[in-house]
Design brief:
Protein name: Type IV toxin-antitoxin system AbiEi family antitoxin domain-containing protein
Organism: Gordonia desulfuricans
Number of domains: 3
InterPro entries: AbiEi_C, AbiEi_N
Distance between the termini: 68 Å
Strand order of the largest sheet: 4-5-7-6
Structural class: alpha+beta
Radius of gyration: 23 Å
Number of helices: 13
Number of strands: 13
Helix content: 40-55%
Largest sheet: 4 strands, mixed
Order of helices and strands: EHHEEHEHEEEEEHHHHHEEEHHEHH
Shape: globular
């Protein structure tokens, strides 16, 4: 079996393979057999180095795409978001997104979306050797393009969580244009205390239904003043918690299994309840079915909050 010299990112470029003595026939056979996976024109990844997560695979596709892009093109929108580490809600990663800094572009094909628009020099940064739109510009571009409130809120939450400056984002949205009103609305309600897209999605459903906006990451302390819990959402007398793998994955320590984390969460919840607070939980399926408001409404009504 042929050994293929992928780079440190796991990418094998055709021109580098040919330079090392590998032939096009060998590349084609390896792709047909599954030993290599084609991620872009003239770019492959060995099967055993193929990332399991879609966002990681997209980063590789971005890197391969930029090897074939013109000097004026800058990675942008959802693709730039993956490089910055922005967490997005149900992102469409089917195409690599770039913005043409010379105000050309506006082209879409099966694999790439070249957006039309000029970029100021201060809106371009380099991430891992790739020119991308800056954090603030990236979040604004995504929020403008997603078309729905929840994903727009999620990317704005994530940007602020990563340290983005709200003021220049607000200035970018001062004018008119497609998606500006949605992005401006989402940015105005964005909160860096929202820890992941699932929490942003739950809050978006509450806001859309006109429920009172909760306090995020409310701290609970024991009688000795020691912090023992932070609640995803808090109203006086009520805690709301998203219960999903995204949370348990974050809590899982190197020496723990999932069952131990679930037990720890149960102990934590019991301690919160002993503070005289009702705890309600929902899972990912409740978010997708838009059931969060229905779960919260009876308790908020009972407490006189709505």
């Amino acid at each position: 079996m042929t050994t293929f010299p992928a780079d440190t990112h796991g990418i094998l470029l055709r021109r580098e393979a040919l330079a090392s003595g590998i032939t096009d026939n060998q590349l084609a056979r390896a792709a047909r057999s599954g030993q290599l996976v084609r991620i872009w024109t003239g770019a492959f990844v060995p099967r055993d180095r193929l990332p399991a997560k879609a966002v990681d695979l997209h980063r590789l596709r971005v890197r391969a795409a930029m090897d074939h892009s013109g000097a004026d093109q800058v990675v942008s929108h959802q693709s730039a978001a993956t490089l910055h580490g922005l967490e997005m809600l149900l992102p469409d990663l089917g195409r690599v997104h770039v913005t043409d800094g010379a105000a050309r572009g506006g082209r879409i094909d099966a694999h790439k979306h070249a957006h039309n628009g000029a970029l100021d020099a201060q809106e371009i940064v380099v991430v891992d050797g790739i020119r991308v739109t800056g954090l603030e510009r990236t979040a604004v571009d995504v929020a403008r393009s997603v078309g729905q409130f929840a994903p727009a809120l999620s990317v704005c939450d994530s940007a602020l969580r990563l340290g983005a400056d709200r003021e220049p984002m607000t200035q970018m949205l001062a004018g008119r244009g497609a998606g500006v009103n949605l992005a401006r609305y989402a940015l105005g309600l964005a909160d860096p205390l929202s820890e992941n897209p699932a929490e942003s999605w739950g809050r978006a459903q509450m806001i859309a239904a006109g429920l009172p906006v909760p306090e995020l990451q409310h701290a609970f302390h024991d009688d000795d003043g020691n912090l023992f819990a932070r609640a995803d959402y808090y109203w006086e007398g009520l805690v709301g918690e998203f219960d999903g793998f995204v949370k348990y994955e974050k809590l899982l320590g190197a020496d723990q299994d999932a069952s131990a984390v679930v037990v720890d969460e149960k102990i934590r919840e019991d301690k919160i309840r002993r503070c005289g607070v009702v705890v309600v939980r929902w899972i990912w399926a409740d978010l997708t079915a838009n059931r969060v408001v229905g779960i919260l409404t009876p308790e908020l009504t009972r407490l006189g909050l709505i």
